[in-house]
Amino acid sequence: MSSQRRDEEVLRRVLEVEAAKVEVRPDALGAIRARTARRSRWLPFGAIAFTAATATAATLVVVALAARPTPNHTAPDPGAVTAPATTPSPTPAASAPPTSAPAAPPPTRSSPSSGTGITSLAVYYVGEDRGQPRLYREFHRLPAGSSPADKVRAAVTEMLAQESAEDPDYTSAWPSGTGVLGVSVDGSAATVDLTAAPPDDLAAQQLTWTVAAVLGGDPRVSLRHDGRDVRTVRKAAALDTLGALWLIEPQHGATVARTFEVHAAGAVFEATARLTVRKGRTVVTEETLTLSAGAPARGEARITLTLAPGTHVLELYALSAADGSVQHLDDHTVTVR
C-alpha cells in the first residue's frame, strides 16, 4: 500500500469513528416520516420509474436522471444572491414569476411606491435539523426600490411577516408584529431599526444573513430598537448556523415543466446526499447526489428530472454513517405541469 493510500485509509477511519459518536434520537426517522406525511397535497399512487433502455416511452414516467456536481469545486457562498435581477413592474401582470419560483407574495407585506420594481430577494427562515434550529433560505419576489437600503427593507419586512415562508416547515425567530422603522446602508455596513430587539442570537443571525444576501459578503449589521442601539452583528459560521442540506430549486410550492433541474447544496459527510421523489405514497425514484465539496465546506449538486404531471415531493437528506438513519431532511412539494 502506497503512503498516500495509507494516509487516506487512516483519515477515513478517523472520520468513521467521529461519525459514530453522533447521537441520533431513536424516533428521528419516525418523526421525519410523520412530518412528511402531513403534506396535504400528496396524491395517491403515481408514476413508476424506468430505465434508460425504455426512455422512448417517456410520456408516462421518469426518463432522465443526470446528477452532476458544479464545475467550480470551491464551496459556494450560501449568502450569494443567485436569483433573477430586478424587473420593472408597473402593474401586477407585467412581471409574472418564472415557473420554477413561488408566486409573488400578497402586497400587504410591503407597499410598492413610485419607481418600485419586482426583485427576487433571499429571505432566511428557521427550520429544524436533527432537533436543532437552523437557517434555511427562500427566494421571494418582492416590490422594492433600486437602492441597497430599499432591498434590505423589503427582504427584512418579508422575513418578519408571520407565515411568509413558502415552506410550512419554516418559521421566524422574531416575535409577531415586529416591524421595520428604518434602514440605512453605508458600503458594507447596514443599520436596521426595528420595533423589537432580537429575542435571541438565532433571531439576530436570521436578520444578519438576510441583510448579507442583499449586500453580499459579511457586512456589519447594527441592530436598533426604536432608535436605540442594541448590538452589532456579523454572520456566524455557516456550519453552525445553516441547515446541513438545502433544496434550493425548485422551491416549495413551485410549478415546473416536466423536465426540470433540482439544485441542492449543503455540508455533509463525504459530500454524499440522497434525493427521493414521491408521488403520493409511491417512491418514483431514489438517487445519490455527490456535492462539489464535503463537510465542513458547503458543496452543490444538480440533477435533471423528467416527471409525469402531478404533485411530487422532493426529499433531500443524508444517511447516518453510524446507523444509516435519515438525517438533515429538507423536502419541497412541487407541481409538474
From TrEMBL:
Q: Name one Pfam family in it.
A: Gmad2
The biased composition feature labelled Pro residues covers: 99-109
- In this chain the GerMN domain maps to 152-234
Membrane spanning segments where? 42-67
Asked if the keyword Kinase belongs to this entry, the reply reads no
Per the record, the domain of life is Bacteria
Compositional bias annotation for Low complexity: 74-98
Location of the region described as Disordered in the Swiss-Prot/TrEMBL record: 72-116
Keyword terms, alphabetized: Membrane, Transmembrane, Transmembrane helix
Q: What is this protein called?
A: GerMN domain-containing protein
